[in-house]
Backbone:
């Protein structure tokens, strides 16, 4: 996302803000990630770089460079 894959983010909100600014939020990920919501812990399937939990509304994001692993997904919080 213009920083190469070396860019780092301090929070989930930083990740989601970057995705939105670059226009990647609703782009499909190379492969869906199955993980638990970082807020309510319910299972979810993340298919786009920005995803809202169906159970609690918490927004999660992951950069395209790190979309290969659920451990890189960060939570911006409910309703972000």
Residues:
């Amino acid at each position: 996302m213009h920083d190469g894959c070396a860019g780092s983010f301090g929070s989930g909100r930083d990740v989601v803000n970057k995705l939105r600014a670059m226009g990647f939020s609703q782009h499909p990920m190379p492969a869906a990630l199955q993980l638990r919501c970082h807020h309510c812990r319910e299972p979810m399937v993340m298919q786009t770089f920005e995803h809202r939990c169906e159970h609690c509304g918490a927004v999660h994001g992951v950069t395209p460079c790190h979309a290969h692993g659920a451990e890189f997904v960060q939570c911006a919080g409910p309703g972000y």
About this structure: The chain is about 15% helix and 35% strand. The mean pLDDT is 92. The first helix runs from residue 12 to 22. The radius of gyration is 11 Å.
